[in-house]
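Morning F.,

Quick status update on the modeling queue. The single chain you submitted on Monday has been processed. Sequence for confirmation:
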Amino acid sequence: MSRRWLWAFTLLGVLNGILFLVALWRDYDREWKRYQTAFFALEGRKARTAREEEAVKGRRHEFIQIAVAGSTRMDRCMMCHLGVEDPRFADAPQPFRTHPEIPKHPFERFGCTVCHGGQDMATTTQDAHGRILFWEEPLLSAEYRQATCGGCHLGADLSGAPLLTRGRQLYAQRGCVACHRIRGVGGALGPDLTFVGSRKRDPAWHLRHFKEPQGTSPGSAMPPFTHLPEEELKALTVYMLSLREMPSALLPAPRTAASGAR
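Structure tokens below.
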């Protein structure tokens, strides 16, 4: 073998070694591992007893995921949001802050992305929040988060979701029902909206559609709703986002005559 080939194979071997070390480091230095390390340190500062201190010292990095009931979602949000169920972290910075308690909505059944949006199986912040190309369900901002309540709680005024309730009222008051059908009720001039929230998950799209229907849906016969206040358009957007198909395992049990009488 010539000296030239020997040098080529040597350089190739060195390059492969470097690439292997880089891959090894990238696997070790995962973003979620850094968040867990920071959480363990915060947990150690909050320890009040010797037993709690010992428990923190025994913590190791852990790959966490939740199978959402009745769906193909595999939520990994709690790999970083480690304090969501621990009241000690009510004043902690994100992503460690305690989540407000919502009765009958346990994390082990509902996960996180059903309500908050985002990419369930992602393991980096940017990917998990879903504000990336080719992902149509970005993390919902606080003002639109009420929409997900309507996917399960149909036809009810929810005290914790006033914007959703207002959107439902406006849909009837502004005559939308004359052109659109939802679950078999309404006109047929416009498209059926029963599951429009599953087809179009971006709030910005719905806001643009209300203001410029032809710009977002060429050929649409819908008039622009630019005369409505921004708050009303947001409320209607929340209602549109709520019209989605939800896993049957998450839907509330139907009320029976006996339960309604109590």
